[in-house]
Design brief:
Two copies of one chain form a homodimer. By secondary structure, chain A is of the alpha/beta class. Chain A has 21 helices and 21 strands. A seven-stranded mixed beta sheet of chain A has the order 11-10-9-12-13-14-15, sandwiched between helices. Chain A has a six-stranded parallel beta sheet with strand order 3-2-4-5-7-6, sandwiched between helices. In chain A, strands 17-16-18-19-21-20 form a six-stranded parallel beta sheet, sandwiched between helices. Chain A folds into three domains: 4-175, Rossmann fold (3-Layer(aba) Sandwich); 190-332, 3-Layer(aba) Sandwich (Rossmann fold); 360-544, Thiamin diphosphate (ThDP)-binding fold, Pyr/PP domains (Rossmann fold). In chain A, helix 20 (500-512) links the parallel strand 20 (493-497) and strand 21 (518-523). Chains A and B meet through helix 2, helix 4, helix 5, helix 11 and helix 16 of A and helix 2, helix 4, helix 5, helix 11 and helix 16 of B.
């Protein structure tokens, strides 16, 4: 006989089983009962100022923890997360979105229900565009099956999923599903793999200047060790994409730098263009990563979780992990000596020019000496992202930035997500003034939850990236006193710096401030820009104008 | 021969033609070229901190101006407005959403384009759920036709529409459409109208206690004069729904008050329940308006722009305006004497209890004496909305609140929308602390555009409405020093009040501060609530628990 449980119990049990200890979100009347049960479970709820903040935080939590979850009310809550959930979809952050909804018994009433739009499927239809699987828990009989199905899809595809939970189903009794003997559905595709491998190995062995490019899927699918093993079996140099930055320790001797086509470091771009075999592993083919370069597909091997391609021909059903593991085996007898020694010089000791105004390029150069080991660097978009390509992420530290979807306002709430998982850390957070005005109020959560990141607001008085695409008054924004935010939220250290000397002092004060978060308002000239941004605007500007 | 123009010129021309003088939004690379052309036209662009703020502002601008517009970049911009646009859909605010998008020639490239999700139709598909008509301007030949089609739909249905503008089409030449001799498509439906009218008139004449209920469509379709004429022809008392509050001057002698079912004023609820003929004009049948009452449909006549129903039978194709006009004609010979004199007492002069802590009920009582004529009262949700039902909106003033969709965080950006249209006004804005934390940073725009509203933050330390539905730690939020916001945004007067005496002083200071906006942090007990909220939680609480 089947055992009985309730849908809520089963859902909470399922969240715990996949490793979720915290759920981000804001309740509302359609979800508050489930929220209350969640709060009384072993899972903790984490509130934010707005639902978008909760979604960005859950996304970052997912990137650190392997999976994240979000719980919101119907429409006014859920629709506020669409942009952030779309970002998680685009950048492959597995996220479980749970939304309250009108009860099954309310749905046929005479009245329009508050928070609803066109009809009661509108929110579900919208989420279909930004999630990989969806369910509505409106039938207790199959609710556990549906929960299993969407969470499995979340883990498999590393994309968000949507669970709609009508409020009158929260207590509904449902059967406990039988313990599944997970049939391994993986196809026996040795023939395909062998064929692909043979061709890849021949191509690699014949190459004079092979290079490996690691992307974000190496982290998402936890293939870091397999990736390192391949590097060390071959001795080939490697780069990462921006989204894949810091997938493994950037102090690795074979690390050449971050590749971003012609927008990125020209030395690295040249190296890739001259390579007669680029082995791309787990990297997404995005315009910002590669769109500006003349990547000759005839000289690439491209392997991701979803696609496998040598030159211009595709293979189906090749597992990314299997391929990396087998490739390392095939190549290890071939070449053990490290072919490449990094030519990228570590910046000479930074000499402070005390009275000079801070420039974005020098800010990032200086920051290289400030990032501790075992920590995070979290960057927003614009020059916070472009400038950060020059950062060398130290041992056991990791880099987080929305490098492909590039939604402004990611960094501050993302920092909350990271710190809820790892509250002992003090990440370095870099955010532009425009992005800060979108979601910066979420640093209220740093005060509320007693978290201590160090936030640099790169204050260049507006949307500087866009000034170089097409300038106009629409690029000007109100110049806030960002460093006074601690007074609003009741905690935190606020500092304001204009010169290199003041920046040095701020570094010291921030490091010594172990009691609260620190926010540093870094004044920059409104036309100051990083080298990456210079290259980007000269290339992308043409598309705009 | 057809004259030639460009898609951009035609779009800007069309916006101007329907009365749009301002477009709210934030540019991004997919839309910045159009933004720049917009800025160089007669239409002004208005920037905000976030796209959601822009959308709420455009919604409020629409409610004041008759139509509003919003311009954003692809996905990271557009998807950030979905919740606000859904609110405009639900509450019938006509809004033109223009989104930049990848160029037609970029769409078939080898790379994933930044800001994109599943495919390049994702954003369009999402907007289909929250707009009444959509187009993609990817073909210059039919672009003008498409622009006309969606803007016509916007005006006709009073709902948002979506225009996607690929960035390489901005300069594209297109034909100027022929001047349309707008064929009036209105059906000759006199037979239907006469039949409905005859039945309605008989029902009304036979009634002993008829009452009229006015809803938001009276304002949306500009039927205020027709409505007043009907009132004065009949002498019947009238109420409004919450969303319809202040459709006409609340000092009208036949005005009974705002109807909100059992949640609202019990006298008014009783009056409606006892009525043998309730004539509902332009009011949406929502749960918050009516869901709690025992409205006997056999005793109602229900007419909106989309539906017409007497008792339980429907009529098609009846125009709301025609019906109101003809009904007034039929009834004017019948009854001219005013049947009803308001029994709702105007509150006796408010006596300040100087040392008493401020209570929400007394706050609203006192506020009644503070609202000037020719002004706006703009309320957010929660007790800001519930409490405000007790406000009597003076002559030529209007009330604005998201009374049906009830998305928190509407009021501050909505105030921007109102003031961009009417910068000389100083509206009274009432917002809860929870709602303020969502979008309150948009008051930066008051400083940036030199606007001077008076903002009351009803600070009850969390989500008080929800405390009464289901209390838990998730209802606690960080207690900000809301009155210090002027220091962040560089302008404004901030005040903090706890007692009635301090509130009195704040009223005076706010009135005297004609140079900037004023924000008043009104401390309330976290369990203090309005009478409406008391009734609401005792009724709706059951659905939650």
């Amino acid at each position: 006989m089947l055992k009985e449980t309730t849908i809520t119990e089963y859902l909470i049990h399922s969240l715990k089983k996949v490793g979720i200890e915290h759920v981000f979100g804001i309740p509302g009347d359609y979800v508050v009962k489930f929220f209350s049960m969640l709060e009384n479970s072993e899972i903790k709820t984490v509130g934010t100022c707005s639902e978008q903040g909760a979604a960005f935080a859950a996304d970052a939590y997912s990137r650190v923890n392997g999976i994240g979850a979000l719980c919101v009310t119907y429409c006014v809550g859920g629709l506020n997360t669409i942009n952030a959930v779309a970002g998680a979809y685009a950048e492959k952050a597995p996220l479980i979105v749970i939304s309250g909804a009108p009860g099954v018994c309310e749905r046929d009433g005479d009245y329009l229900l508050h928070h609803s739009i066109r009809d009661l499927n509108s929110q579900l239809n919208i989420f279909k565009e930004v999630t990989i699987a969806q369910c509505v828990l409106d039938d207790p009989q199959n609710a556990p099956y549906e929960i299993d199905r969407v969470i499995d899809a979340c883990l498999k595809h590393k994309r968000p999923v949507y669970i709609e939970f009508p409020r009158d189903m929260v207590d509904a009794k449902c059967p406990v599903p039988l313990q599944k003997n997970k049939t391994i559905c993986k196809k026996n595709n040795n023939d395909i793999l062998n064929e692909a491998l043979k061709e890849a190995v021949e191509m690699i062995k014949a190459a004079k200047k092979p290079i490996i490019m690691g992307g974000v899927e190496i982290r998402r699918y936890k293939l870091e060790n397999e990736f390192i093993n391949l590097l060390e079996c071959t001795g080939y140099p490697y780069v990462t994409t921006v989204l894949g930055k810091s997938i493994i320790d950037e102090s690795h001797p074979q690390f050449l730098g971050v590749y971003m086509g012609k927008v990125g470091d020209p030395q690295i771009c040249n190296y890739i263009e001259e390579s007669d075999c680029t082995l791309m592993l787990g990297s997404l083919m995005t315009d910002t990563n590669m769109g500006t370069a003349q990547l000759d597909i005839s000289k690439t091997i491209y392997a991701t979780a979803d696609q496998f391609c040598i030159k211009h021909h595709y293979f189906k059903d090749i597992d990314l992990k299997d391929f990396i593991v087998r490739l390392a085996e095939e190549l290890k007898s071939e070449q053990k000596e490290v072919l490449f020694k990094s030519e990228i010089k570590t910046k000479a000791d930074f000499v402070v020019q005390p009275e000079n105004p801070i420039k974005v390029t020098r800010f990032f150069e200086r920051l290289n000496g400030f990032i501790p080991e075992d920590n995070f660097v979290i960057c927003d978009v614009g020059d916070s992202l472009f400038g950060s390509l020059a950062l060398k992420i130290p041992k056991n530290s990791a880099y987080l930035g929305p490098a492909y979807y590039t939604s402004m306002g990611y960094a501050i709430p993302a920092t909350l997500g990271v710190l809820i998982k790892k509250p002992e850390l003090r990440p370095i957070v870099i955010v532009g003034d425009g992005a800060f005005q979108m979601t910066g109020h979420e640093l209220s959560c740093f005060a509320f939850y007693d978290l201590k990141p160090i936030v640099f607001v790169l204050n260049n008085n507006g949307y500087t990236t866009q000034r170089y695409l097409k300038d106009g008054k629409y690029n000007d924004i109100n110049n806030w006193n960002y460093h006074l935010f601690p007074e609003i939220v009741g905690n935190g250290l606020g500092l304001e710096v204009r010169t290199e000397e003041e920046l040095e002092e701020a570094f010291v004060k921030a490091q010594n401030n172990t009691k609260s978060f620190t926010i540093i308002n870094v004044h920059l000239d409104k036309y100051d820009k990083s080298e990456t941004l210079s290259r980007l605007t000269s290339i992308f500007g043409k598309k705009v104008i």
